[in-house]
Amino acid sequence: MINVIGLGYIGLPIALMFAAHGVEVVGTDYNQELVRTLQAGNTTFEEKDLDELFAEAVSKGIIFSKEYVSTDLYIIAVPTPYDKFTKKIDTSFVVEAVKNVMGVCQKGATVVIESTISPGTIDKFITPLVEAEGFIIGEDINLVHAPERIIPGNMILELTQNSRTIGAYDRAAGERIKALYSSFCKGEIVVTDIRTAEMTKVVENTYRDINIAFANELTKICRHNNIDVYEIIKIANMHPRVNILQPGPGVGGHCISVDPWFLVGDYPGLANIILAARRINDSMPEYVLERAHEVMEEKGIADLSRVGLYGLTYKENVDDVRESPTLQLLEAMNKHLAEPLKTYDPYIKIDMVKNQYHNLDKFLNDIDIVIIMVSHNEIKENMDKLRGKVVLDTRNVCKLEGTYKL
Ligand code: SAJ
Which residues are catalytic? Predict the structure, then answer.
C-alpha cells in the first residue's frame, strides 16, 4: 500500500494514477476541507482529464484521509517554497511530513520525496530526522528522491509519457521504485544518486527560467530599437541549434519562478546568470505597466479606470494563480498607492482582488484598453470582441490591427 502525503497539484494526480493502476493508495493531507471535498467525490482544481482519472481511482478504492497510515511505502508531495529573505529552500513542509511518517512507518519502509528540493536537502534535513528515530538508512528505511516533471495543463498525459529521474542512496531501492513507477510511466526512468536527482530537477527549471529571461531581455532591447522581437525569435529559431522561448509578462507558477532561487540562496557568488535571469523575469510585470503607460500616452488616454487586465492565472488554461505576473503587477501598483486596474479571468470564480469582474462582456464594456496577460483559449476564441479597443498583448496572440506588443 502507498501512502501519498500532500494532495495538491502533484500529490493528487500521482495518488490517483497509482490507484487507477491497481495499487492500494491512501492519500493524506492535513487540510480537512480538502480531504472532505475529495471524500465527497469532487476534485480540488481544474486540470485536463483529472476528473476521469479521479473517477477511476475512486472506483478502484482510493482512500482520502487526514491521517498518516502505517505502511511500507510513502510518497511525499508537499510544497517547497523559498525563504524570501535568504532565498534558500523552506523545508518546513517536507520536514514535518517526514517526521509524521517516522511516527507511523514500519521498519523496511521506503520514503519517496517527489517535491522539488534543493541539492543537499535530503542529506542535510531528511537523513538526520530518520536517524534521530534510531533507524539506519538503507537497512531500516530507504530514502528516494523521485522529482516530478509534469506541467500544469497537461499533467495526466505527461505523468504517463515523460521520462523521470530517481535518486537513491541504495541502487536496489532505486530500482524497486523505478519498477513501481513503470506501472504507469512509459517514459525512460533513470536511476542515479540522490544529489544528482535533486540537482537535475532544479537545473531543468532554471534552464527554462534563463531561456525565458533571455527572451524577455531581447524584448526590451528590441522595443528600444522598434524591432519586432517575435519575428527575430521566429527566424533565429529556424537555426538548427537555437530554441529561444517566448517573452511574456513575467514568470509565474510554483516551479520555474521558485527553484532557481534555491541555487542563488545556496551558491551566492557562483549563481550569477541564474540571479540575473530571476531579476529580469521578476521585472516584467512592472515593464508591462511601463508599456501600458506609453500606450496610454500615445492614445491620449489618462483614465486608469478604463484599463483592464485580462487574466489572473500564471499561465493559460489553468486555474492556478501562484506567483502570477498579474498579481505581481497589481502588487506593484499597490506599492505606489495606485488604485488597482480592473481584472477578469474566466478561471477565477471567487473574488480575489479589487475591481475584479466575472463576466467577459461586462469587463470589456467598462474598459477602453485591454492588457492581455494570459492567453486563455477563451480570449483567443473571442478576439473579435476586442475590436475597437486598444489592445496591449503581452502574449502575442492578438492579430487585430493596431495591437500593441510588449
Ligand atoms: N513562460 C513564458 N514564456 C515561455 C514559456 C513560459 O513567459 O516561453 C511563462 C509562463 O507563462 C508561466 C511560467 O513561464 O508564467 C512557467 O510556465 P511553464 O508552462 O513554462 O512551466 P510550469 O511552471 O507550469 O511547469 C514547470 C515545468 N518545467 C519545465 O518546463 C522545465 C514542468 O515540467 C515542471 O514539472 C514544473 O515546472 C515543476 O513542478 O517543476
Answer: 201, 255
3-state helix, strand, coil split of the chain in percent (to 5) is 45, 15, 45
Rounded to the nearest whole angstrom, what is the distance from the C-alpha of residue 152 to the centroid of ligand 1? 8
Dihedral pair phi/psi, residue 147, rounded to 5°: -60, 140
- Structural domain span for residue 72: 2-194
Domain count, the chain: 2
Of 139, 168, 194, the position where a domain reaches its end is: 194
Return the closest-CA partner of residue 324 out of 257, 395, 376. Answer: 257
Residue 243 pLDDT exceeds 90: yes
Do 190 and 240 belong together in one domain? no
Which cell goes with 10? 502533484
Sheet holding 63-65: strands in order across? 63-65, 25-28, 2-5, 73-76, 109-113, 141-145, 164-168, 189-192
Q: Does residue 44 sit in the same domain as residue 190? A: yes
Nearest protein CA to atom 38 of ligand 1, as residue: 255
Is 138 inside any structural domain?
yes
Indicate whether 181 and 273 sit together in one domain. Answer: no
Q: In whole angstroms, give the CA distance from residue 229 to residue 290.
A: 17
CB 377 within 8 A of CB 389: no
**Segment 178-226, tens digit of pLDDT:** 999 999 999 999 999 999 999 999 999 999 999 999 999 999 999 999 9
Q: Is the CB of 255 under 6 A from ligand 1?
A: yes
